[in-house]
Amino acid sequence: MDRVLPKRFWTSQRIAFTIGGLLLASLLVYSFLLADHRSKLNVEKDKITVSTVSEGPFEEFIAVTGVVQPLKTIRLDAVVGGYVTQKLVEGGSMVEKGQILLRLENQTLKLNFLQSETEANRLVNDLQNTRQRLRVERFTLRRSLSELDYNLDQAKDTYERQAKLFKDKAIPEQDYLTAKRTYERLQKQREIEVESQQYQEENAKLQIKQLEGTLARTQRNVALWQQTLENLVVRAPVSGLLSTMDVEVGSNINQGQNIGQIDDMDGFKMRVGIDEHYISRIFPGLKGSFEFGGGTHELEISRVYPEVRNGRFEVDMIFAKGAPNGIKRGQSSPIRLELGKASKATLLPVGGFFSDTGGNWVYVVDRSGKRAVKRNITLGRKNPEYFEVLEGLESGDQVITSSYENFGNNEVLEF
Prior knowledge:
Residues 346-403 form the Multidrug resistance protein MdtA-like C-terminal permuted SH3 domain. By secondary structure, the protein is α+β, with helices and mostly antiparallel strands. The chain is built from 4 helices and 22 strands.
């Protein structure tokens, strides 16, 4: 006899539906609560640069380029103008102090010299003639005075005799008065003669003094013209390397025109161009260094040229311990110019990411090494090697520092 079997609750179909429902519920929970909805991009790890954040001294410096120049350069400017008749030395030659470099010709200067010399000779003759005339006049005046004294002595004797005879009433009064007037006239005449001689003597001395002054000035002019003519021969003012000589035979040179320069080879310096952005932070005494001949050499700013041209200004840097052996004029070299003292900081290597993010965020590689996640950061100072990290990164973090140009706005990069 058939028996009715009890109906089971967990049938195969019901179990299958239950399991499917649980899986669907789990999927929905994961999708809405646990799944990562951030935008992702797959990248090839070997095509990016990953750098490690570190702790260390942050040295604020800039990389500049310096050009080796002589410690002292002497400009050759034409003292006088003229046309070149002879060029004895070419640029690039070593010269000695006083060595003749050029010979110039200037007919106007020669004519002025001859006129001045002629005037000086005329004044010399005038002075000699005036002195000679004074001597002759002195003899003439002495002779006139001697003759006048002789006549005065005779008149005095006559007057004294007539006075005695008139007192004795031996002669008439008229004879006495005539002798007296003659004597007094000669006395007065002698006084006038002496005064006239003094005046002529003083006038002659004044003329001589004036002529001597005019002659002295004219002779100084002659000497000046002579010196000017000597400047038609251009000589080296110092010993050194005649680096340039920008004239040729037959060319005309104006007074004050630069015709070349001589480099003093006893020492060197570096002429450095710097972006005008740093002009307020550059001053004499700042240190720098550069690599040459397998070693590091120290430099120090000695002079700042404040004039800005094309967005740059220049400084002179001297070698703190002397120029290295083998360095030559015109060589250029990168220089590490320090702007301040080193300070401890969190350091992020410089890279192309900055141009894409402005330093506001970076991709940081997680611990698995299989992905990098966008993270906001704050950067401070910068030197050619590192950024100073103020916020957002710690020592040991792995950061993508190459360009982000192809990453778009994705938040996660998967390797």
